[in-house]
Amino acid sequence: MSVNVEIEGEIAIVTIGNPPVNAVNRAVRERLLALAQELDDNPDVRAVILTGAGTLFVAGADIAEFDRPAEPPFLPDVIARIERAVKPWIAAIRGAAFGGGLELALGCRFRVATESARFALPEINLGIIPGAGGTQRLPRVIGVADAIHIVAENQTPGGAEALKLGLVDALVEEPLLPAAIAFARNALEHALPSPSLDRPVSVPSPDVWAEAEDRIAARAKGAAAPARALQALRHGIEHGAEAGLALERSIFLELRATEEAAALRHLFFAERAALRPAEIRGINPRPIETVAVVGGGTMGSGIAAALLNAGLSVVLIEQDEAGVSRARSTLAGIFDSSRRRGQITDDQASERMARLETSIGYGAAARCDLVIEAVFEDLAVKRSVFAELGRVCRPDAVLATNTSYIDPRLIAEGLPGPERFLGLHFFSPAQVMKLLEIIPTPETAPDVLATGFDLARRLGKIPVRSGICDGFIGNRILRRFRAEAEALVCGGVAIAAVDAAMRGFGFAMGPFEMQDMAGLDIAFLYREAARSRGEDVPEIPGDLLVRAGRKGQKTGGGWYDYAAGDRRPQPSAAAERIIVPLVSARNDVAEEAIVARLMAAMAQEGQLILDEGIAASAADIDLVEVHGYGFPRRRGGPMFQAGRASADKT
Ligand code: 3H9
Fold it and tell me: In this protein, which residues make up the domain named 3-hydroxyacyl-CoA dehydrogenase C-terminal (predicted)?
């Protein structure tokens, strides 16, 4: 049974036990509705405590049900019944009371919580708004201004903060239940407060709404839900709770059916599945506490910062004094900028730097549990690093290469103990970007692979296993994406039109703006190297631009022109002249058609990657794009898009 009842004297204890997170599904709703009646009818019961089994209260409605039409009994009706029960319900909360969980708690007459409690209405992250009264009861319990932060801006107060806000009536110590029972007995001695929905609420000044709208719009990145959540909240304040509940429910049902919400649900489940792939289930990772990073350039320093942020100790290995001091100052700069943004305190910044050791030469790697090589992308250089590491490191230490293109099997050739080796492909800036491509070789031991996934979890990253191919999953799709964008330009579509279409779709930058920022020369050298090996690599516009000295922003121009000190791209007559030999007559293609071409190219490459067994699932490919390449989250990823496009056709 997913909802259990025990009677302790005159108090009934209702426990929602629906592992792993006590999500409220139809069975839970049915049982709660029936219980509200049963307990009202039970003459021995005077109050009801509602709690969650295990370490949390309730993580919300069961998201897995959202792909189907809503089925009665509906959560708003269950909560309304609890709120109007003759016997008062008291929510006893530890851990997460999220979404529908917080809404259930708000339907109770009282809330008691431990310090460990966390309150949130994270529905906007799923492209929806609270659908069971959250936008109406919360402002009536804690006031409009604070409610806006939680409903539409993702604020998640803990137990102590919730007490200050008036969201909980008492903060109690563990064990929770005896404390909640004592609270209930005492409450029964006094007059009951009004149900949340009936409480008076002061109407804020128009400035409060205007400021909230501005804040929300500034952060929305095209997402619809935050503004709609605010709209529902405001409607209920201006037109009364009943009107507010009706609008909230209709927006909830409308948004739940959108492509954006489906995309966000898809990513929600994909992200969780990524951390626990079947192939490593039950396999213990190797313990990792001290990590050596070889190479203190942008990538190596970023990786070191990510490790230090996660509480690991780091030895950064460089070739000479100059390298060491460059890396130290890069890392100090990274933590200083986190400190200035309020993400960490002064003490945390100093503590992180204190966990950083720098070293010249490889000796210090001898005591490390994991070594991550992040040197120049060159096979011979990387091999020489692993030759040293093979000599110095403990035989059980895990050895990883951060390569973005080179076949890890070639890097590991001749390494003693190749079973401890794997690829860990970080994305720049490594302390920020969430993607970690994990690339085992055929010899990588299962517990070494499990160690890669465990490390990703500890760093707060999304791990995706990639098989071995040129560019692995992400860079291979990127190459195809760029090639298609260039093909559009060769077909007469304006450079700026391609970029504008992709920005309109939700990318922060279009493919040509992105190339100008990153520099056109690395990919050019890569193509030139292939040509010099005799491979047939056709001439493309990017080749002509680099040969003409236009390597991107760093040379003042690439696909676009840039004024000195200004990163805003200006259409470039010079660039257009240079690429003329490869471009046909101007052909104006609609934005939607440009997006469709580029999406189709990404999805086709993705399908090849799946067919070759390079990626384990289409969802993994979507995670790579969303977390490593700026694919707009609300679009779900290229494979999700392809699925929707083919569903539209059938
Ligand atoms: C809502 O409530 C709408 C209402 O306003 C209105 C309704 C009418 N449903 O994250 P974890 C699964 S919308 C179904 O790794 P943690 C998850 O997939 C909801 N499944 O655990 C995973 O499955 P698996 C608003 C869910 O300890 C497993 O549980 N609420 C749900 O790191 C463990 O999850 C939210 O958006 C769910 N609601 O973190 C809260 N939640 O083992 C979403 C989790 O098969 N949840 N699962 O991979 C969370 O934020 C975290 O799960 C939480 C625990 C912080 C609670």
Answer: 471-562
